[in-house]
Amino acid sequence: MASLLPTNQTLCISRTNYVGSTPHRLISDASRRSIGWRSVRAAISLEKNHLPMRSFEVKHRTTVDDIRALRLITAIKTPYLPDGRFDLEAYDRLMHMQVAGGAEGVIVGGTTGEGHLMSWDEHIMLIGHTVNCFGSNIKVIGNTGSNSTGEAIHATEQGFAVGMHAALHINPYYGKTSIQGLIAHFDAVMSMGPTVVYNVPSRTGQDIPPPVINELSVNPNLAGVKECMGNERIKGYTDNGVVIWSGNDDECHDARWMYGATGVISVTSNLVPGLMHSLMFEGENAVLREKLMPLIKWLFVEPNPIGLNTALAQLGVIRPVFRLPYYPMPREKRTEFVSIVNELGREHFVGERDVQVLNDDDFIIVGRYR
Question: Its function (predicted)?
Fold first, then answer.
């Protein structure tokens, strides 16, 4: 009989030993007949009627403490083909670079990964692909948040079903709600597994204030909070034992070493994972912090992920394809990026090609991508 390989291995770029999983065992007909079956009713009786996890998923499920221990989490970029579809080959290369650079986790389909420009089919597929190809080497945190609680519940069920280790949840945006509505929303989505709450009022239009986080902190599935409201806010949480990741790359060094943050959920680590690893793991280093500051400031001159997309294209790591409404940095800023790379050292950046200034007509802007 021909051997059977896991189907996930056909989807991954496996040039290194980062990729792969143990082949499934063949089960004989006799052993199949000896397996006991549970009734559908038993599954339906689970708390809040969320989809039950399969035995394999339960056995290998990541604990909340596993997520709380992560110090460097990269908000990974999603690359595109010229027609706007995902470029999984480029994505896999970028993921390999994150593993090699010391990132301990990735956010898939977050703000940086442009999850808000994806269909849910694309979104869940990318989470599953990342788990299948890299889940044994890095923790996969899927952004399954939504301004619709029902949609967030459904997406989170699917995310855990395809194997993600934790969920990232934003508060409902645009359609702002009350304090009790915020608490009820997060309670509804946290019952399924380890959860990171993301507070970024500049994008959602509504702060998640400390009384909400303090109430949510009693939930055993709250892994922690990605907090973008500054280091004083972070200190208030960490003094009370709440795990926090800085959501601001320019503040993450001080957040980690002076205000008690566990680490950072970073955009910059897409480009220089090794340097960001040093910033989070090797103690206070004001010299390195200042050395990175021109790059960090450049990345956020325009709303994220415009700078990152432009930078990765000029490094030759991804194709220069943008899904609208994102649009490349102007030529002046593209030229400035080359100077920043040369000053910091090309060897610290992902990719192998020489950095270059792309022309305007090198970029492909895609409006219809579904």
Answer: Catalyzes the condensation of (S)-aspartate-beta-semialdehyde [(S)-ASA] and pyruvate to 4-hydroxy-tetrahydrodipicolinate (HTPA).
Buried b (16+ CB within 10 A) or exposed e, 127-139: bbbbbbbbbebbb
What per-residue confidence (pLDDT) applies to 46? 36
CA distance 264 to 252: 6
For residue 127, tell me if it sits in a domain.
Answer: yes
| Six-digit token string for 57 | 């998923």
- CA–CA dist 111, 103 (Å, integer): 18
CATH number where 106 lies? 3.20.20.70
Average pLDDT, the chain: 88
d(CA 359, CA 40): 59
Query: Residue 35 pLDDT more than 70?
Result: no
Contact between 263 and 256 (Cβ < 8 Å): yes
Domains contained in the chain, number: 1
User: Is residue 312, in this structure, part of any structural domain at all?
Assistant: no
Residue 42: is its pLDDT beyond 70? no
| Tokens matching residue 343 | 């000053």
* Helices (H), ranges, 169-272: 179-190, 201-204, 210-216, 231-238, 252-258
- Asked, for residue 36, whether it belongs to a domain, the answer is no
User: Can you tell me the distance from the alpha carbon of 102 to that of 274, in angstroms, rounded to the nearest whole number?
Assistant: 6
How many angstroms separate the Cα of 177 from the Cα of each of 204, 208, 212, 289?
11, 11, 13, 38
The tens digit of pLDDT for each residue in 251-265 reads: 999 999 999 999 999
Q: Which domain holds residue 210?
A: 64-284
Q: Which residue has the higher pLDDT, 34 or 65?
A: 65
- Domain-located, residue 177: yes
Torsion of CA 191, 195, 201, 207, to 10 degrees: 50
Using an 8 Å Cβ cutoff, are 227 and 221 in contact? no
Element of type H or E holding 364:
strand 364-366
Q: Which residue numbers are catalytic? A: 198, 226
Digit-coded pLDDT (tens) for 175-194: 889 999 999 999 999 999 99
Query: Who has greater pLDDT, 204 or 5?
Result: 204
Question: Does the pTM of the predicted model rise above 0.90?
Answer: no
